[in-house]
Amino acid sequence: MSNVIEEKDWDPLVELLRHEVQEYGGLYNLLERQQQEIFKRDPELVMKTNEDIESYMTNMGVLREQRETMVRGMARACKVDEEQPLSQMLAHFPDFMRPMLQALVDEVNHMVRRTRQKARQNFMLLSRTMEISHETFQSLQPENYNKTYTKKGRVGVKTAAPPSRYRAFV
């Protein structure tokens, strides 16, 4: 094989990249839905959507691995470093294919950044919601909460044993 990748080799890669962009869009939509459910304060829906997100991410990992395996195979065929990212291998594709491949690579990278940002937002919202809930419970029953620090310097909370009226008889 020459140093230029042929259509029979790059056509499946283009389809994988398109599919990956589409799937990142689906993941972003799930994260957006989760954020709306967080705002609605519906824990059951948030947890259900979280399960959907985890499943989606597992499937996306498989898709990413397929693409990475294909790119490594192309790198071997072109006798270049197999760990080289696709964006650095564009010189081995026909001239007319490079702009489309670059656009797909850019879009995948954009969607990765966008979904990571949305996931971080959701994490921060959930963390803050938990913190507010904890503070509310603590203000309602301060005798049952005792703040301490963990070995890593984070604030930890130790709860006192429930009042005797809530203890089970043995």
Structure description:
By secondary structure, this protein is mainly alpha-helical. It has one domain: Methane Monooxygenase Hydroxylase, Chain G, domain 1, CATH 1.20.58. It is built from three helices and two strands; from the N terminus they run H-H-H-E-E. A hairpin with a 5-residue loop joins strand 1 and strand 2. The longest helix is centred in the C-terminal third of the chain and has 43 residues, at 98-140.
How far from one another are the termini?
77 Å
Biggest sheet strand order reads 1-2
Beta-strand proportion? 5-15%
Mean of pLDDT: 82
- CATH domain class: Mainly Alpha
Q: Notable features of this structure?
A:
elongated, 170 residues, 66% helix, two-stranded antiparallel ribbon, Methane Monooxygenase Hydroxylase, Chain G, domain 1, mainly alpha, 2 strands
Can you describe this structure in just a few lines?
The protein has 3 helices and 2 strands. It is mainly α and 170 residues long.
